[in-house]
Specification:
By secondary structure, the chain is an alpha/beta fold. Helix content is 25%, strand content 29%. The chain contains 8 helices and 18 strands. Helix 1 (13-24) packs parallel to helix 6.
């Protein structure tokens, strides 16, 4: 059995949960690679990645290259003398990096590959109305999320689960999958399976302003899936228009009311406590919303300070 010397690569909170599990299972992490610091927020203060915060807290050797092909970085990486690299929510690696360790470089990805390769697998599984997803570990090759699979574990998605909740469930599942994968590699017996290509494979496209906007002409279920698939981050959004005013609003939580009605699509209907938007097969009742310059709030809180006319429209 070969003792593992691991270099871990990752950036967001999801990767921290996995790194923490590796450390707590007494594996030797000889180095951590994460994204370079960058300014964030209105004050443009320098923000550390979640993985950097963790690495500093646990006194782990930390590298933050801006260029993964930089000779100085490659020399430093080589000097760590790792025999395995583990990648979780990082970036595409050049061949010179992923081929470096003797036992290879594997990635833990938050989907059941080959479906949902790409940047936002947790969000798209919900947006597309999947009832299950999972975790896959695979050896990295020269394309994105296409390498030979080692292990996969499945989890169900409930009807009202949002991306934040699924993120946490997958982080827990990924923690057990990572340990099983490391044990296989340690034993020297790693069965792998080549990913089957097909036209049916669904992609986890990068999220942007355009694909996060609510289209109120879509069926209620699709709208609801978009809202929960983007909650709490980056959030689904649309415009509310009323009496010549327009607000760019974020919607975090909603529920469906299936009902026949005669309202125009996108009409905003309010009572003292409720906001509903008319869609073709009923209403989307908005439970949690954020107006520009305000904090996220429940709809009944918002309605304490704002009134909509009968002509109010969501677009």
């Amino acid at each position: 059995m070969e003792k593992l010397r691991i270099v871990f690569m990752g950036t967001p909170e999801f990767a921290v949960g996995i790194l923490d599990t590796i450390i707590k299972n007494n594996y030797d992490v000889v180095g951590v690679i994460t994204a370079a610091d960058k300014p964030a927020g209105r004050g443009q203060k320098i923000k550390y990645s979640a993985v950097k915060e963790y690495a500093l807290e646990h006194n782990l050797k930390l590298l933050q290259p801006t260029n993964l092909k930089d000779e100085e970085f490659l020399a430093e990486l080589k000097s760590l003398d790792a025999n395995l690299q583990v990648v979780v929510a990082f970036r595409m690696l050049p061949e010179v990096v992923w081929r470096m360790p003797k036992l290879g470089t594997f990635n833990l990805h938050a989907s059941l590959l080959p479906n949902y390769r790409g940047a936002a697998p947790i969000n798209w599984a919900i947006i597309n109305g999947e009832t299950k997803t999972g975790i896959t570990t695979f050896f990295i090759d020269d394309k994105i999320d296409t390498g030979a699979m080692i292990l996969s574990d499945e989890i169900s998605i409930s009807d009202n689960e949002n991306a934040g909740q699924l993120h946490d469930s997958l982080m827990a599942l990924g923690s057990s999958t990572i340990v099983k994968t490391l044990k296989l590699i340690e034993s020297g017996n790693v069965p792998t399976e080549i990913q089957k290509e097909s036209d049916e494979i669904k992609t986890a496209y990068k999220l942007n302003k355009e694909n996060c906007k609510i289209d109120w002409t879509k069926p209620a279920t699709e709208i609801h899936n978009l809202i929960r698939g983007l909650s709490p981050y980056p959030s689904a959004w649309c415009f509310f228009k009323d009496n010549g005013q327009e607000w760019n609003v974020k919607i975090y939580e909603a529920k469906i009311i299936f009902e026949n009605h005669t309202y125009n699509i996108g009409s905003i209907i309010t009572t003292k406590k409720e906001i509903k938007v008319a869609v073709k097969d009923g209403f989307i009742q908005i439970l949690s919303i954020q107006f520009p310059g305000k904090k996220k709030m429940q709809s009944n809180e918002l309605l304490n300070g704002i009134t909509f006319s009968e002509r109010a429209q969501a677009e």
